[in-house]
Every structure is written in structure tokens, then in C-alpha cells.
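Hi support team,

I submitted a single chain yesterday and got back a structure, but I'm not sure I'm reading the C-alpha cell output correctly. Could someone confirm the output below corresponds to the sequence I sent? I've pasted both exactly as they appear in my results page.

Thanks,
R.
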Amino acid sequence: MMETGRSWIVLGVLCAVLLGGCSALAGGVDHWPGSAAAVALIVAGKAANDRVRLLKWPMEFAFWAAILMIACSLVYLHFKPLP
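Hi R., thanks for writing in. Yes, this is the structure output for that exact sequence:
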């Protein structure tokens, strides 16, 4: 089991990689409102997972975090008005 401080650093790196991927895939489309919501949910999920231990850290959590990032971005893009 990783120590607590190191696992939060891993979470920061995971979020940076996910946000970098979203920025690269979005091109010129503003994705930050959806991505910010996803990061907030990922951080809340990490805090809850530290207590409940529902998902294995870090691989299962990274998988579900990526799915959450994609889902939040798609929901935001669905409700964004067309140019």
C-alpha cells in the first residue's frame, strides 16, 4: 500500500495526463468546464476510495477516472451551443 502523500502525487500526475489528453483531443474546442467538473469528481472519488477501498489503487482507479473524464467531457460538449 502506498503512503498517503505519495498516492496524492500519483493522483496529480494522473489528472495532469488526463487533462493533457483532453487538451490534445479537443483541439480548439473549450473543454475546461467539463474537465474541471471531472477533476473535482475524481478528487472526491479518491478521497472516498481511500476510506471505502472499492477500487484497487492505482490501476482500477485510473481506468474509472479516464472513463469519468471522457463522460464529463461528452456531457459538456452535448449541452454546449453550436457555433
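A quick pointer for reading it: DSSP finds three helices and no strands in the chain. Let us know if anything else looks off.

Best,
Support desk
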